[in-house]
């Protein structure tokens, strides 16, 4: 029986003042056969889990933001968690829809109202719709989502309907393997990897990119160690981002002397995918596909190389 793919939508909103609106929007999306994820920050519960929110945004096919009467709880950097989620979705060129409540007072008096006005100005530069009543919001969401996803490919399948297949490589393994001399030369290569991050300066944030030079063996050692078990590309990228975090922050803070914080460090996705392909071409890793999601794992050759590298570290 043919299985219908279902899209995953991340719904972003503040918690206070939008409980019923969020419920009705989510209910409408579910009635449209759409899977929903996302969770509003609540200051009366556990700390906000940015890493979880970020991974959900990256997995989603569409990002929806509902903005009400408040700017919302803020991160230590001075930007609200809701604002941060929108910036991250836009940095990924993720299809995004914003629905803004048309209730901003003409003269802002409180700090939150001033921040909200500034956020309105940011949102107005991209696709957005104004709403006033809950029913109007739900109607706007239904129409906009249907139009956005009408020609979009992708989506999710139930696990039992997604066959697990290994991605075949047509090149012969013997021709692609490197001998010991070539391996030693390869591991000493310096690689210039681009990273992007949000830089916070004078109450504003900008997305900046900076190159970082790392040795090939340092990159493969860190990322490859995780691939002893099957791992998603998102997980592997996060390892490299953590590895370069200190240097990226140092360089960006040096370039922007008046900035006070750097966060949301992301490796250039195309460069990272090229790295994965290089490792696969040398029979160090292999890809397996589970539905619409890929995982990567060390081959026997890759595991042997990691073991040799780890042994060398112990000797040194």
Q: Tell me about the biggest sheet?
A: 5 strands, parallel
In DSSP terms, counting alpha (H) and pi (I) runs of 4 or more, how many helices?
Answer: 11
- Give, in spatial order, the strands making up the sheet with the most strands: 2-1-3-4-5
Beta-strand share of residues:
15-25%
Distance between the termini: 58 Å
Structural class given helices, strands, pairing?
A: alpha/beta
Poorly predicted regions are 161-178
The oligomerization state is single chain
- Report the average pLDDT across residues: 82
Alpha carbon gyration radius: 23 Å
Indicate the overall shape: globular
Please specify the SSE layout and strand pairing.
Elements: E1 8-13, H1 19-31, E2 35-37, H2 50-59, E3 62-67, H3 81-91, E4 96-101, H4 111-123, E5 128-131, H5 134-149, E6 164-166, H6 173-176, H7 180-187, E7 190-201, E8 204-215, H8 216-226, E9 231-232, H9 233-255, E10 261-267, H10 269-281, E11 285-290, E12 293-298, H11 300-315
Parallel strand pairs: 1-2, 1-3, 3-4, 4-5
Antiparallel strand pairs: 6-11, 7-8, 7-10, 9-12, 11-12
Helix pairs in contact: 1-5, 2-3, 8-9, 8-11
């Amino acid at each position: 029986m043919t299985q219908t793919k279902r899209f995953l939508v991340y719904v972003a909103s503040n918690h206070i003042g939008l409980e019923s609106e969020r419920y009705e929007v989510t209910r409408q999306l579910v009635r449209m056969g759409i899977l929903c994820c996302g969770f509003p920050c609540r200051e009366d519960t556990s700390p906000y889990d940015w890493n979880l929110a970020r991974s959900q945004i990256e997995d989603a096919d569409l990002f929806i933001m509902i903005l009400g009467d408040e700017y919302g709880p803020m991160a230590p950097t001075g930007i609200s968690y809701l604002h941060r989620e929108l910036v991250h979705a836009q940095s990924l060129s993720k299809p995004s829809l914003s629905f803004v409540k048309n209730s901003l007072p003409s003269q802002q008096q409180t700090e939150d109202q001033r921040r909200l006005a500034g956020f309105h100005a940011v949102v107005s530069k991209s696709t957005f719709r104004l709403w006033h009543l809950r029913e109007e919001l739900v109607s706007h969401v239904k129409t906009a989502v249907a139009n956005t996803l009408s020609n979009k490919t992708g989506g999710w399948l139930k696990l039992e309907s997604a066959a697990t297949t290994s991605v075949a490589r047509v090149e012969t393994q013997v021709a692609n393997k490197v001998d010991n001399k070539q391996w030693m030369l390869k591991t000493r290569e310096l690689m210039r990897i681009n990273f992007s991050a949000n830089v916070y300066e004078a109450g504003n944030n900008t997305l900046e990119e900076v190159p970082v030079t790392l040795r090939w063996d340092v990159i493969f050692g860190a990322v490859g160690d995780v691939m002893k078990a099957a791992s998603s590309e998102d997980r592997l990228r996060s390892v490299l981002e953590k590895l370069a975090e200190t240097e990226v922050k140092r360089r960006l803070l040096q370039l922007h002397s008046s900035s006070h914080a750097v966060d949301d460090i992301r490796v250039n996705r195309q460069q990272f995918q090229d790295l994965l392909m290089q490792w696969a071409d040398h029979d160090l890793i292999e890809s397996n596909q589970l539905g619409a999601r890929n995982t990567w794992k060390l081959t026997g050759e890759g595991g042997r190389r990691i073991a040799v590298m780890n042994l060398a570290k112990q000797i040194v």
